[in-house]
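On clarity, I found the account of how folds are encoded harder to follow than it need be. What matters is that the chain and its backbone geometry are given together, residue for residue. For the editor and my fellow referees, an illustration may be useful. For illustration, here is how one protein appears when written out as sequence plus structure tokens:

___
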Amino acid sequence: MSGLGLQRDSREAAARELRRQRERQRQGRIFNARLRTIGVDKDALDTQVKDRKIQEAAEKARNEELANEMKKNDKIMCMLERQQKNDIRNINKAISEFQKNFQKPETRREFDLSDPEALKKDRPARLSDNDPRCTVSGLQKFMGEDLNYNQRMKFQKEQLREWSLQQQRDWKNALADQKFADDLYDKNRIELDQKIMEQQRREEENRRAVCAATKDFNRAQAAELAERRKLEKDKKMKDDMDEISSLLQGDLLSENPEQAVSSFGRHRVIPDRWKGMNRDQLTAIRYSQQQQVLEKLRLKEEEDRRDAEWDRQSIQAARAQLVLEQRQQRQSRERRRALDTINAELSQEQKAKNIYLREEAYSNFPTGQYYAQFNTTSR
């Protein structure tokens, strides 16, 4: 008996727990303002919103991938351009350093002509008989006084030889530096050209594929257009031959009088085949025109009479409308005065009622315990 009681208690406890869960689920549905006010399938809407967000995320990821690819290409181009500028700057810097170190103004052969310190460095016109500056034009040494001719010539030749060797060495160094700069510039330029050629090759392949597809489509369109034009030309030629044969065998070129008679009756004619009217027909037409003129004058007089009568009636209606509007305005003013009086009385009653409600009826305010007893269950 105790076992049966325990089983019954467990079943009752399970049933109570199930009722509690259903009550909580019901409260979740009823107290959910969004689900209660919308009144539609929220799960379907959530699924649509989720699918929409997934689609937007995929679109955003694709756009970001394209943007990253464009940024990467821009960075590569900027890096190559910056590298080229750095190479040019280094070459110019090397040239400037070379000019500064090996092509100084003091090493020039004609520097003494533009030396700003020439007067400070200048010596007397002739220091001794062996002074190499004593030339014939200087009038410091005359024929027969050149006692150091051999030493002077030897010194000048040695000096000229040293100058020549120094210039050769400077020239070789300059050529070596220039060759190194040119090789570096050519190497960078070749790498840049190879990358540009690779990109152009890919673009050319894509363009060639597009052109091939366009050419095939245009070729098919041209064949179809040629076939259609051929059929139209054959049809037009056949129609032209039929028309020529019909004209040659028709009544127009044969000038048949019966050809002007219309199929709607013999009293009607076809204008492009008609040869003209006889005297009786012309007389009948002129008589008909005179009758039409008289009828038009009669109708014009009747229309003038109708217009005059209409104007008279319009004036009378306007006067009656004016009198009616004045009467309505007067009645409207009287109704407005009566309505103002009624509104004033209602305003006084409303004020008295508000005072009564504020001071007598609504003097006992509810506490929080009063509001807490609502919305505690779903029933």
About this structure: The beta strands are 261-262, 265-269. Residues 205 and 211 are 10 Å apart (CA to CA).
